[in-house]
Amino acid sequence: MASAYEEVPYPAGVFPQTHPDRLATIGLLRGMAPAPVERCRVLELGCGAGNNLITMASNLPESEFVGIDLAKNAIASAREMVAGLGLGNVTVQHLDVCDVHKEELGRFDYIIAHGLYSWVPAPVRQQVLTTCREMLNPHGVAYISYNAQPGNHLHDLSRGIIRFHTAHFSDPAEKIKQARGLLKFLGDSRLEPNAYTTALRTEAERVAKYTDEVFFHDDLSEVNRPFYFHEFMADARQHRMQFLGEAGPNELGSRDFNPEAIARMKELDGSPEIVREQYKDFFLGRMFRETLLCREELPLAPEFRPERVAVLYLSCDAELVNETEKGALFRRHERSEMTTGHPVVTSAVKYLGSRWPQRVPFGALLEHSISAIGGTVPDGVSLMLAETLLAAYRAGFIGLHMGPARLVTELSDRPTSSQLARFQLQRGDSTADQLHRPVVFSDPLSRRMVLVLDGNNDLEAIVRDLAEFTNESVETAKGKVEKGLKALARGGMLVA
User: Is residue 407 in a domain?
Assistant: First the structure.
């Protein structure tokens, strides 16, 4: 398996849902006392080239990060990046997951295993769970992602076909070409499509969106085992771990399901949590899970506790679309929507949108929202606002966080991008923003602007540099710089 990843390196990525801030927030909402994000220890199993882990480390200098991976070339790339950034709080090791020991590495507050569990043999999967049990601190949180059923049944169909077809090809590039070609050919093979060819055509369209490297490792890999949620949790319970939550949005939306479906799910409220979660997957046709685990002896609240929102920070990039006497409609940039008829909630979401990408403490948000509407505020408005925003968080519309973001939105005399962004954009077009989100700067001008923001150049020097780079007039470059800096600030790319 290591040789496959050395022959075809897996693309380095940044995964917002794995960040300790996300894991700690969910733990806090269910009654845990997770370690402070700014002073924690993080272990990533299967860290690859370390992009995810190193990006965290660059923004959390007082926390410690350890990554392991079996692919030598990936670890070599990670070490080169660590050295280039001069980071002293991150260590990467060429190590088998089965050789990870508490005596050597110690305990951790957060353990991450992203894109690993479904793609390794059963003994390694068991070792991942053993590591989580033995090496997590008492209030630690583990993140494990895996392919889920029932959504992966179609993937299993196409995977069986393409693995048989490509078994005798040794060259990865030829395997990829043959697999893509066969799926498309079979999907288009009938004069009148039936359920079978429609499924294969859907699969061909799915993999067409993948890079060759991702397709090779995700669909053509020797091991790719999807799990029903109850199966995964049965294994987790054998290692004395319990379900804490999902790292991503985890609710059935009323915009996607009819009232009868929502009502049926509501009937399961009294059922065990594992049962409710499994039926969610049946409704959603879930293909992928990002499950959080903690020690079984920890007492957890049965649901997120709204009163704990009071100690959190909130964020949202939504804009007001329409407001009438009946209520307000907000829409995020990825097109999800929220409606509210309560003036305090309306004021709160407006304020969050105006402050984006900054995070606002709940107390400050409550105070602003009440003062904005004026008049008498009814009793219980604080809990009402917390409950409403918590529901929006569960739907993925609002962000909840343990602390403020390490970024600035007010332009200084010498605007500055992160050292990480400048390092990565000198070598390619991909980096991460200060919210731990992947960002691609596809055009040379935008990359150049990030690179020139090293904290040494004032606005006049930046304009001169961009004018020379584009071979345009200073006046033209000045307009582009002003627009570009505003976009970078709004995109969470500027630091103090």
Answer: no
What's phi and psi for 64, nearest 5 deg?
A: -115, 135
Q: What is the pLDDT of residues 197-221, one digit of tens each?
A: 999 999 999 999 999 999 998 899 9
Question: Does 237 fall in a domain?
Answer: yes
pLDDT digits (tens, 9 = 90+) for 81-115: 999 999 999 999 999 999 999 889 999 999 999 99
* pLDDT at position 255 over 80: no
Side chain identity at 496, as an amino acid letter?
A
Residue by residue, DSSP assigns 53-64 as HHHHHHH-TTSE
Instruction: Report CA dihedral (112, 116, 122, 123) to the nearest 10 degrees.
Output: -60
Buried b (16+ CB within 10 A) or exposed e, 46-84: bbbbbbbbbbbbbbbeebbbbbbbbbeebbebbbebbee
pLDDT at residue 392 in the model: 95
Between CA 283 and CA 262 the distance in angstroms is: 10
Q: Which 8-state DSSP code applies to residue 374?
A: -
Residues 209 and 237 in one domain: no
- Structural domain contains residue 429: yes
pLDDT of 140 over the 80 cut: yes
Domain that holds residue 389: 306-401
Shared-domain flag, residues 240 and 365: no
Please, what is the Cα angle at 237 between 117 and 233, to 5 degrees? 50
Contact 398, 316 (CB under 8 A): yes
pLDDT of residue 336 exceeding 80 = yes
| Residue 25: partners with Cβ closer than 8 Å, 6 or more residues away | 312, 400, 401, 402
Residue 347, SS3 per DSSP:
helix
CA of residue 276 relative to chain centroid, distance: 23
Q: Is the overall model pTM greater than 0.90, yes or no?
A: yes
In 3D space, the residue among 408, 415, 450, 409 whose CA is nearest the CA of residue 429 turns out to be 450
Other C-beta atoms lying within 10 Å of the C-beta of residue 275: 13
**Taking the mean position of all CA atoms in its chain, how far away is CA 131?**
22
Structure tokens at 427: 């070598």
Alpha carbon distances (Å) from 12 to 69, 135, 430: 13, 26, 10
Question: Strands 136-147 and 288-295, how do they pair?
Answer: antiparallel
